[in-house]
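Good day; I would like, with your permission, to put a structural problem before you. A protein sequence and the structure tokens that stand for its backbone fold form the material at issue. I would ask you to consider whether the tokens describe a fold that such a sequence might reasonably adopt. I set the record out below, with my sincere thanks for your time.
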Amino acid sequence: MAGVHILALFAAWHNSLVIGFKLGLSVAILLHAWYYARRWLRPRTALILQYDPNKGWQLAQAGETLRMIGLDRESLITPWLTILLYRDAEGRRRQLLLFADAFHDRDEHRRLRVMLKIYGRKLTI
């Protein structure tokens, strides 16, 4: 992604804009590069997604306690990719991308897709 930021800086300086716009655009590009590096390049922790018939869907990061989430109807479930759109306990909308090859075996991903199709929208916060 750093290549995109470098290309954007190159394009910002090799055009006919006045110097003030070039500086402003460069600052915006550098701020986005900094934001991207902080947000997406930090180490990720393992996630635990669990369904309990009494409590509904729960999510936790490694070492945390399970917390209830409410799945949105717009979640996408395909054989290759599952995009879970959910709301956490504070009501903030979040998303979780689950690629099929991220699971230890294909059967785990298939079971998750079946569970989401059956129980996905029954219990929400």
